[in-house]
Amino acid sequence: MTDFQQQALKLAAQQQSPVWLAALRTQAANDWQNIIWPTRKTEHWKYTSLASLQKSTLDVINSPVHLAVSNTDWKSDVEFITVDAIRLVFVNGVFDPVSSSAFSEELGPAEVVRFSQANAAQQNIIEQHLGKVVEGEQHLFATLSNAWLDDGVLIHVPRNQTLAKPVYVVQVSTLSEQTTSVNQRLLVVLEDSAQAKIIEHFVSTAEQQNSFVNALTEVVVGDNAQLQHYRLNLEEENIQHIGAVHVNLLRNARLRGFTLALGSKLKRIDYQINHRGQGAELNLQGVYLPRNKQMVDYHSNVQHWVPHCTTSEVFRGIIADSAQAIFNGRIYIHKDAQKTLAELSNKNLLTSNKAEVNTKPELEIYADDVKCAHGATVSQLNATALYYMQSRGVSRSEAEVMMSFGFINELLQQIPEVAVHDYLLPRLAALFGRDQVLLEMVDE
User: Fold this and answer.
1) Strand pairing report for 153-157 and 111-114
2) Which of 116, 240, 96 has the alpha carbon at shortest distance from 180?
3) pLDDT the model gives residue 305
4) Residue 440 above 70 pLDDT?
């Protein structure tokens, strides 16, 4: 084992969890000892170095003993999305009831509960699904998440019910005297014909450094159920974040997902979508925006196991300065998945001669009656278009900003949740250095 694996195993032994989760933790800790650490020769980690993580000293794991939620200094650096929602705030992995909303009377028959507060019926739901959607043997940090498991959030919507409000989960990483290692877990279970909207928001304070965040979301979308899911990784660049979203889509299930990530020292986000029931539909859109010396790595793997399912996947990236981006999108059509419709598109814009992107769209098809397409592009700003705009009185710097922002604005305008769109637009405009007039032009 590497030094990091040994440190992680030591922290797993110190972690505390409800007794009914002990078996999952123990099994994961045993599996962790036998995991082969990825290197640059490992295909799925070929372009993403874990050197910074291996150099980290994992002195602290999320615990109220070490991390005082009562410290409110972070609030001046973090602005919540203005949305009428059930809000749960975690600071360095510790639940903050003061910043969270009181939602006990807003749920109706649905349930939003922390694992540590779950009753017997809720524990049964968690045990039935937790660690079952994700394939830990293929995702080493999912195994680590199970080994570090102490708490998490269950969102459960019963059959034929609609969650009254979106659930807004905010994960805040703040400055700590010691290295913080935070394990974040979300389990979403929508029963047949249920509906829900969920927003995951990851942020950090400006001074934050030396943190490792391992964030795993598991989702079960039942027959005829519908889910809108948003995952926004807006942390400062010193964060080290390994995240994943694993989803099982059952018969006629619908998932519309949107993900956006700024760059950081280490940022790897995996999407694993399994079409388990006929007629399931996936619409997944993503944007990544690394700059300076940051990096972002998106890996998506969509598995079509059954016939008559649909996948539409669109990712766009703008890579600036000396930043690096990786996109690996894979769609696998199994032999029984006839009548599949699947499309994958990845487009990248390099705004610097030192920017780098490695993109690999993949289609693996074993059925003979399917309609599939995939493609990727890497380009720079169009010199002719820049000249045209400059000839109309727009400065070169403003023209570059307008063209760059326009490259992703098409996806931003398609965000279904207005509150998410309205939150992102001015912040991304500021990221590109836009003034208010230009922002209004893009938002028209």
Assistant:
1) antiparallel
2) 240
3) 97
4) no
- Is residue 404's pLDDT more than 80? no
Residue that has been written with the tokens 């992995």 in this structure: 93
Residue 230: which H helix or E strand, with range? strand 226-233
Chain centroid offset of residue 326 CA: 15
Residue 79 structure tokens: 């602005």
Q: Which of 5-9, 123-127, 400-404 has the lowest mean pLDDT?
A: 400-404
For residue 214, the cross-strand partners are: 183, 242
Q: Helix or strand or coil: residue 15? A: coil
Nearest to 144 by CA among 219, 231, 50: 50
Helix (H, G, I), strand (E, B) or coil at 379: strand
pLDDT digits (tens, 9 = 90+) for 295-348: 999 999 999 999 999 999 999 999 999 999 999 999 999 999 999 999 999 999
Of the pLDDT bands very low, low, confident and very high (cuts 50, 70, 90), residue 110 is confident
- Phi, psi dihedral angles at 340 (to 5 degrees): -80, 140
Percentage of residues in the chain having pLDDT higher than 90: 63
Q: Compute the distance between CA of residue 288 and CA of residue 338 in angstroms, rounded to an integer.
A: 33
pLDDT, tens only, 128-182: 999 999 876 678 999 999 999 989 999 999 999 999 899 999 999 886 656 678 8
Residues β-bridged to residue 403: none
User: What length is written for the chain?
Assistant: 444
More confident call, 361 vs 105: 361
Span of 124-133, 176-185, 244-253 with lowest mean pLDDT: 176-185
Cβ count near 94 (within 10 Å) = 18
Q: What contacts 24+ positions apart, CB below 8 Å, involve 174-177?
A: 174/71, 174/73, 174/74, 174/91, 174/92, 174/204, 174/205, 174/208, 175/205, 175/207, 175/208, 175/209, 176/60, 176/66, 176/67, 176/92, 176/210, 176/211
Using the 8-state DSSP alphabet, how is residue 368 labeled? S
User: Taking the CA of residue 391 as centre, how many other CA atoms within 13 Å lie in the half-sphere pointing to its CB?
Assistant: 6
Residue 78: φ, ψ to 5°: -120, 125
What residues form DSSP beta bridges with 245?
Answer: 217, 271
320-345: b (≥16 Cβ within 10 Å) or e: beebbbbbbbbbbbbeebeebebbbb
Tokens of 362: 């993949």
User: At residue 21, what are phi and psi to the nearest 5 degrees?
Assistant: -105, 0
DSSP state of 38: P
Residues 29, 145: contact at Cβ < 8 Å?
A: no
- Is the overall model pTM greater than 0.90, yes or no? yes
**192: which residues sit within 8 A by CB, 6+ positions away?**
159, 160, 222, 223, 224, 225
